[in-house]
User: Fold this.
Amino acid sequence: MTLALDRQNVLAWLSNRVPAARITHILGVEQTAGDLARRYGLDEAKARSAGLLHDAAKYFKPQLLLQMAQKEGLELDSVLEAHPHLLHADASAIVARDEFGVVDREILDAIANHTLGRPNMSQLSCTVFIADTIEPSRGNTASLEALREASVQNLYAAVWQTSDYSLKYLLETRCYIHPRTVLTRNWALQMARRSTQTENSTEKSIAQITS
Assistant:
């Protein structure tokens, strides 16, 4: 199935299950993820597809989210059991597969990883993870504008800084923090530093050659 051909069907399905404001957010993520994918030479259609379906299960009842996770054989820990809402990303990937026939693993992973992230996730997953936070309807605070600027400079640095942004909010509101958020942050920080070192090394080599 080509998801782009069924976009209106997806939107019709969503319109019966999520509020209008959430549709606005979803469309923002679809566009932003696509823009980021194009910026980094990734598959724009895949990024937009993942963005369109990333919140399909956002308003599913907690018990349903747990049931879906258990049926899928997902590993549940104490944080997920206490806060099933965190499972909506995994459940949205299940909806994408079972309701809309999406079989592309990269798209399904990008949907499943958009909330907590995952160490070693693909660059496509990174685009949706970032887009979920920086899409236009989120607002225009100084912090968000800084994240938007970072998102077009270095993909991994943007994941790390997006994770920091989320962690700051969770700490301030005294919410539970899932360990995967921290693991994602540390992995992205490491990747960002590694890519910066590579860029510096390349620039130094070019300078030596041309001097």
